[in-house]
Design goal:
By secondary structure, the chain is an alpha/beta fold. Helix content is 38%, strand content 12%. The protein has a six-stranded parallel β-sheet with strand order 3-2-1-4-5-8, sandwiched between helices. The N and C termini lie far apart (56 Å).
């Protein structure tokens, strides 16, 4: 059975989030960034994800290197601070009591087994600095400047269990530039919940990364879903350009 060229084009591009940029199957949303109500939200910018010495590098490292995720997150932090928008971090921490949970999903089991994001306790910083749960050193000047929101920890994947949405609402935020780790897990879960909470969200596609395991490519799975769900899907370069342009305009 023969196929027309148009049929082959559609089939060949099916995996691309921009399969037909001229006539996309999914319409543009009309999203326009407004600095007066925007925030950069970075999920899990922590050593256990982003450092080659981190507990999960074996699964995420290849995707992180390909996307230049570490450097791109740094560019976003710098641009957001320069544009004077709200910056928030939603971290992942596990305390000793969390290891007594009676059940968990596959990745929860993995995270607990490799002591990912472990801390001595909610009120203790003993052995925290430089640990897998700590932030990358290069991000600390942005995160620890006394202005960045450090939300309480999310415990599985989404922000339902922390105070991120409350913190953003209290700052008058209704638009989110979303980035961080991991693409098909915490980032996608934050995206889905924050959409339900009424936020407009642009995901920065190369400021995240996903696991590559025999079960599949988590980054590819996430990128496809972002195209269906997010109000916009930008690169780091596009995001930095938008922030700089609006900053110059004073809007």
């Amino acid at each position: 059975m023969s196929h027309s060229n148009s049929d082959q084009t559609r089939q060949g591009d099916a995996a691309s989030p921009y399969a037909d940029p001229v006539n996309p199957a999914l319409p543009p949303t009309g999203f326009k960034l407004d600095l007066s109500r925007a925030a950069l939200v970075v999920i899990d910018p922590q050593n256990d994800f982003l450092s080659p010495q981190g507990a999960s590098w074996f699964a995420f490292g290849e995707s992180i290197v390909e996307n230049d995720t570490v450097a791109n997150l740094g560019r976003l932090f710098k641009a957001a601070k320069k544009a004077a928008i709200t910056v928030a971090v939603s971290p992942h921490y596990y305390y000793p009591c969390d290891h007594d949970w009676h059940f968990g999903g596959p990745l929860e089991k993995v995270m607990h087994s490799i002591n990912m994001f472990d801390r001595k306790g909610p009120l203790s910083l003993e052995a925290f600095e430089g640990s897998g749960a700590d932030f990358l050193d290069e991000y600390k000047p942005y995160i620890l400047d006394g202005k960045t929101i450090i939300a309480s920890p999310h415990k599985v994947y989404g922000p339902e269990t922390n105070d991120l949405a409350l913190q953003l609402r209290k700052k008058g935020v209704s638009q989110i530039i979303l980035a961080g780790m991991a693409a098909n897990l915490c980032v996608e879960s934050h995206l889905r919940e924050l959409i339900e909470q009424g936020f407009e969200i642009v995901v920065v596609r190369d400021a995240t990364a996903g696991p590559r395991l025999p079960e599949g490519d988590g980054y590819l799975a996430a990128i496809i879903n972002y195209r269906f769900l997010a109000h916009a899907l930008w690169t780091t370069a596009e995001t930095v350009q938008q922030l700089a342009l609006l900053e110059r305009k004073g809007t």
